[in-house]
TrEMBL record:
Top-rank taxon, per record: Bacteria
Name of the protein described by the UniProt record: Thiolase-like protein type 1 additional C-terminal domain-containing protein
Domain Thiolase-like protein type 1 additional C-terminal: 413-480
Region Disordered, annotated ranges: 487-506
Species, as recorded: Gordonia effusa NBRC 100432
Keyword terms, alphabetized: Acyltransferase, Transferase
Keyword Transferase recorded: yes
Lineage, top ranks: Bacteria, Bacillati, Actinomycetota, Actinomycetes, Mycobacteriales
Length: 506
């Protein structure tokens, strides 16, 4: 065996869990405690629990529910390791893929031999404790606020497009119209997809909502499944109010063999690729596709020398149906339950930036039994950051290949904020109150000159036109004007200046 073979990165241990599903304030555990628990389970899983103390690299995903200063170093102390390499990613659900890519590259280069990666969220417990008027006594660390400006541009923030619930529907509606589907057909497609996913979540012990649901239960708007931003009711949104943790142990082949880890546990990290769109959604080429998503997937496959049809085990990021649809189109894969190994972020749970670590755990567990090739695709931001990882139950004949995918040049129309003229709807969404009333909406539009503009919609007549399902809003013309920025909501009373709006006629 050559030196390169000895350095082949291999996943040897995985573990994940859910905690406090009853949301009992007395049972609240910190994200750190949950993550250390998951690491312990991964150690037991590999059959050599003491391997975690040999970790020279620790990678952690960003924790939204509690603030830590240098979480990788804290984790190292908790598990009795003395790591010299610390990896902690910024906000983004792509991070599990990115961190595994970095870890695999370090092992292949001989710069690391044992790595632990993963993370945890405790949003359910945090909310439960805060609901009693108290703050969790979780030390170390402190209560913190998520800074969404990391994933949204200044112009997006001014137009209140800093939340995924408001941004992903813009893609779904554009993709529907691009394919010529009517609203009902697209909703049926999404509902059936996520209903299929629930059958997978029901088999996962770590799933937050392990209940099989029908397409009607997913797609029908009710008081328990209210519309958030059209076209997505609650059960088509990622479920972030969870307590979940996941961990993966990666070593070199040489260390795995020397430690006596059974080869039946080994899953090889074959390739990876990351790509990113501009943070500013307005600066992207279109809303009916993602150039970076396609680049990350196709590059990872090319580096591994495999075809999409070769994969028997997959976990595709699924914060909203449109992400799965985009990936399925690139992979030429039917929209069905085979696209997930966990059950997805709505049913299994969406623990912040760490979801795809659960995907890695689930895919690894399946590959040990089913054998063959596995694919994990992770997404972060507003369809901004993408990472794909190819896993294999068989030893690869070529060394690990990862890193950024080649940059794909993409243009976009000039971006303007007009206060008059005529505009055409390029895509849109409408947000609903808890009582089912449309409260405001967003349009990405084009001027007569082809320039792209954002528009915040508060006019009730226009909101009523946008939520109609008998007429396609995309392509409709309206009158451009401006509104006071302070009318936008989201604590915008102190906002100054004006924002572009669009008024549609009947």
């Amino acid at each position: 065996m050559t030196t390169a073979d000895h350095r082949t990165p291999v996943i040897v241990g995985v573990g994940h869990l859910r905690s406090n599903r009853d949301r009992n304030p007395e049972a609240a555990r910190s994200p750190l405690d949950l993550f250390v628990d998951a690491i312990g389970r991964a150690g037991v899983d590999c059959g050599v629990p003491e391997i975690v103390a040999r970790a020279d690299t620790i990678g952690t995903t960003d924790v939204a529910s509690w603030g830590y200063d240098n979480l990788p170093a804290i984790v190292g102390g908790e598990i009795g390791a003395q790591p010299t390499r610390f990896i902690s990613g910024p906000m983004g659900g792509n991070q599990p893929g990115q961190i595994l890519d970095d870890v695999a590259a370090a092992i292949a280069a001989g710069e690391s031999s044992v790595a632990v990666l993963g993370g945890a969220e405790a949003v359910a417990s945090l909310r439960a404790v805060l609901g009693t008027g108290q703050v969790p006594d979780w030390t170390p660390g402190e209560l913190t606020r998520v800074d969404v400006s990391e994933i949204a541009s200044d112009v997006m923030m001014r137009y209140h497009l800093g939340l995924p619930t408001r941004c992903y529907p813009l893609y779904e509606n554009a993709f529907r119209a691009h394919r010529g589907l009517n609203f009902a057909a697209a909703q049926e497609e999404s509902a059936q997809l996520f209903a299929d996913f629930t059958t997978v979540a029901a088999r996962q012990a770590a799933a937050w909502d392990p209940h099989i649901r029908t397409a009607a239960e997913i797609g029908t708007v009710t008081s328990a499944n209210r519309m958030i931003c059209q076209p997505y009711p609650v059960r088509m949104n990622a479920q972030i109010g969870v307590d979940q943790a996941a961990a993966v142990i990666v070593t070199s082949v040489a260390v795995a063999r020397e430690a006596g880890i059974d080869e039946s546990k080994w899953i090889y990290v074959r390739s990876a690729a990351g790509a990113a769109e501009p943070v500013d959604m307005l600066s992207r080429s279109s809303f009916h596709s993602s150039v970076a998503l396609e680049s990350s997937l196709t590059t990872a496959l090319d580096r591994a020398g495999v075809r999409a049809a070769d994969f028997g085990v997959l976990d595709i990021y699924s914060c909203f149906p449109v992400v799965v649809k985009f990936a399925a189109k690139v992979l030429d894969h039917p929209l069905d339950a085979r696209l997930t190994s966990t059950g997805g972020l709505s049913a299994f749970g969406g623990p912040g930036n760490n979801y795809s670590t659960h995907g890695l755990v689930a895919v690894t567990e399946r590959l040990r039994v089913e054998r063959g090739l596995g694919l994990v695709y992770a997404n972060g931001g507003m369809l901004t950051k993408h990472h794909a990882v190819v896993l294999d139950s068989q030893r690869p004949t070529e060394p690990f290949s990862g890193g950024a995918a080649p940059t794909v040049a993409q243009g976009h129309p000039p971006i303007v904020e007009p206060d008059c003229g005529t505009g055409v709807v390029e895509t849109y969404t409408v947000e609903f109150d808890r009582d089912g009333t449309p409260t405001r909406g967003w349009v990405i539009g084009r001027t007569e000159a082809g320039e792209r503009f954002p528009a915040l919609i508060t006019d009730r007549a226009t909101l009523a036109e946008l939520v109609r399902t008998d007429i396609e809003p995309i392509g409709r013309r309206g009158v451009i004007s401006s509104i006071d920025a302070a009318s936008g909501g989201d604590g915008a009373a102190d906002a100054t200046g004006t924002l572009t709006t669009l008024t549609l006629g009947e």
